Amino acid sequence: MATLAPEAPARAVDPLDVSRAELYRDDSWHAPFAELRAKGGIHYTEHSDFGAYWSVASYKPLVEVESLPELYSSHAGGITLADFQEGVDVKMPMFIAMDRPKHTGQRRTVAPAFTPSEIARLNATVRQRTGELLDAMPVGESFDWVDKVSIELSTQMLAILFDFPWEDRRKLTFWSDWAGDIERIKTPELRQQRLVHLFECASYFTDLWNAKVGKEKTPDLISMMIHSDAMAEMRQHEYLGNLILLIVGGNDTTRNSMSAYAWGLDQFPDERAKLEADPGLAANATQELIRWQTPLSHMRRTAKADTELRGHKIRAGDKLALWYVSANRDESVFEDADSICVDRSNARRHLAFGHGIHRCVGARLAELQISILIEEMAKRRLRVNVQGAPERIAGCFVHGYRRLPVELSRY
Ligand code: HEM
């Protein structure tokens, strides 16, 4: 009879391993992060599903790390806790995962799509589309806010940005979900499936690219890339990487902020009443909802040299998770940080968009979409009433909701 191999000894779970998917699925991340912050905000987890990593969980140390991009690299190990697997993954370079000087050139190429004048140009289109969508929503009937409102509005925006075929726009959502879900790379089968979808995405966008080559410049992102020096000569993988960056960057994040508007204000009805009484608070409420939600829980950096961070010895090659989700609840910066306060005076100081050279290039566009949603709801005197607990995303990267049953009423 064959002898059974001894079982691997069970690994003791570090209670402060905040990379565990269930913490986000069950919304139980608050307590371990509060403990991390109380202990100074820096902690080393030796064993996790993603290997060893440092947590940077308080506001000031996080800003410190982001301010030293030469020391803490975005390129050396990528931007999430999941490591690149040689022979399994295909390298998709994207500028969020590049260091200077390459990062600078590529960021400059897409930045013109997000200048104040471009945002002003997009204002009318976004307002019109949002209004049309809200007018078509049933009042007094149950529906899923995530699918019907958050996904639809953020996907429409991307379709406009890319001049993407309108009837196919949900493909953007599908690809974005595969690209951004850190749990879908935990098995070789899922990694393989993911690659298949990402290549479908690449092939679709290659056709769009080819259709625009040699044509007059138009204000969409693909045309902008074609007509730029830094990006025109990109290799296929690089083009794909940057597209995925823009799709995931602009999709899950805005989507989950819009869901936070519905869910969060339902949790804080007094704040909702304040906003309903004074829609002029929309811009500040937008910042506050982004802070409270923090749609990307972390970004990763990799130390390029031995160093010291507030008394902790970091070695070259160590990975650090910058937990925006926790820094935005740092009590030393945000009073009563777990509560939504639509007129919070320092809501703008949130770190949900990151900090430093990689700070979100699409921030203004995201703010525009969320503010317009709040304003257009107010114009119609529409209120979202949540009908049941949300289904949340299980994973430590994209922080948000899969489903949220709601009903609309008028006030
Ligand atoms: C970078 C969050 C919306 C495109 C980032 C980073 C974060 C972030 C945390 C990394 C910052 C760092 O490493 O310091 C968000 C949130 C959004 C949002 C919370 C919505 C509420 C958007 C939109 C777009 C976009 C609408 C574009 C359509 C990008 C790009 C980068 C980026 C291209 C890379 C910037 C660079 O590396 O220089 N975003 N984002 N994001 N985001 Fe966003």
From TrEMBL:
InterPro entries: Cyt_P450, Cyt_P450_B, Cyt_P450_CS, Cyt_P450_sf. The keyword Disulfide bond does not apply. Gene3D superfamilies: Cytochrome P450. This is Cytochrome P450. It comes from Sphingomonas qomolangmaensis. Belongs to the cytochrome P450 family. It comes from the Bacteria. Keywords: Heme, Iron, Metal-binding, Monooxygenase, Oxidoreductase.
